[in-house]
């Protein structure tokens, strides 16, 4: 949920466990200026974060799962508890103790037990759990793809990609395009970097009327085709509906998914159902029509007929039974039909047995010769990276130095488990496009990184580290490498969740981590009542999904939508933007619009509607501004809002201009 204006700032945040993750969470929380308590079982002489105890308002040495330790804190004023020890049972036990003392405290737990986490969320409420080793996996996988794709995630069964593009001499956007022309229902421009300039650290710092130039770097978000992973064709999008690529009949889609998930099971189920029906029919007919056939005897004779034993049932009869006119045709039907369906079941069973035999002797897939991705370290992080790369149809090879792994763990890629140098040679290191090093050993990661840099300096190198100091040293030693600090990435998610947000995904932009964050709007929230344009430009975020109660969701929604209680909103935001939303730190609006002239008298009605819709002012204010121009609309605007408003008025032949706030008597900005 979004934050309430009524929330007292005195509410504290508790961090249990000051390992690498806990320390990074303390640093991130300190940016919000909130009181921080901490519990650590063992007193340490030094921490990875310098002067860490000085960042804390209260520090207790002891076991957080021990009730008297918790009782030393005023948990009634504890807004959120981040339970981050390396022992998951301790985290769960502490969560139960805190919930007994304060039913409202937000519980953010470090845990990899997904099923237990879901059960606890239902029982405890206001509870969320993350595995810190899974969270950064997507950042590692994206970095392995190279410099073009920075983010890749799924929303509402729609793939979304964040792309980085350097404009070459033949790119079509260099000719007769403005930056505003790159915006569409399937694309949003995030950042624009001129040649020889540093990359902006915030969204919306580009001018809509600027022209892209040779060498510029653009970072934008686009919707992709769910099946081909190509950009969505905008012509298939319908206004007012969520953009989707699969335009087939939804019932056909559901049938295809059902068939794919069931495989051969429908055939088996139908055959079994028919056989049961024949058994019931045969048992009933034999019971009444064949002399001496009662109860189990009729059932057994029916089963014999289904297995092809017509002669075994009727061969010992000295004379035809009285009801032979119905008995013998039914018996023949049972024999023929049973033979066919039993044959089907035998065939499927034989196929499964043969397939399972070949599964045991199946060899690993061949190792790619070139343009593949090497993943060294196949623990939980490495396995998650591999699965993402296979989802994105990227050729990959895995290396494990801890002995052979079960072939069923990663059946879709070749896995090498020899010595380090031999494994890298067999994996064709010199021709690989990327090397991802994600073992738990920082020194081993450093060694492999240096070996890879020497043998294949053109490859994309992605390195996992666990300590901030080592990360800084590696970035200086290997400036081209992507050095990702696992716990720093995870800490931003844990801290965002501590303030009540649901963090769906994360990815890296130059110099910052971007969180895909979900809000459920409630009354008195800092977002309630704002236009999406005000949320975007005031807090420096990108709204990417909006859903009103009972309605379909809208991807890349219009700036003109007003947020109400009950709405759902998903945004792209940095940790700094989340902090600004938390304290309602909206950037000031510094522009107004002046209506100069109406070329057509009838434009005043439509013009007033446009003013009200885009600026958020009342319709009465808009009509007053359109009456007897020149008039100035008193409602202040953000510059992107004002520029969009000017273009909309220009289309209905209303001349207007932007005026800096406080400078109404000075010349206005020209109409774009």
Low-confidence stretches: 4-9, 232-262
The major β-sheet equals: 6 strands, parallel
Strand order within the widest sheet?
3-2-1-4-5-6
CATH homologous superfamily grouping of the largest domain = NAD(P)-binding Rossmann-like Domain
Instruction: Please give the alpha-carbon distance between the first and last residues.
Output: 39 Å
Number of structural units classed as domains? 5
CATH architecture of the largest domain: 3-Layer(aba) Sandwich
The top-level CATH class of the largest domain is: Alpha Beta
Strand tally: 24
General form: globular
Overall pLDDT score: 82
**Class by SSE composition:** alpha/beta
What is the gyration radius calculated from CA atoms?
A: 33 Å
The name CATH uses for the topology of the largest domain is Rossmann fold
Q: How much strand? A: 15-25%
Number of helices: 20
Portion of residues within helices: 25-40%
Attribute tags:
single chain, 672 residues, alpha/beta, Rossmann fold, Alpha-Beta Plaits, Helix Hairpins, 5 domains, 6-stranded parallel sheet, 20 helices, globular
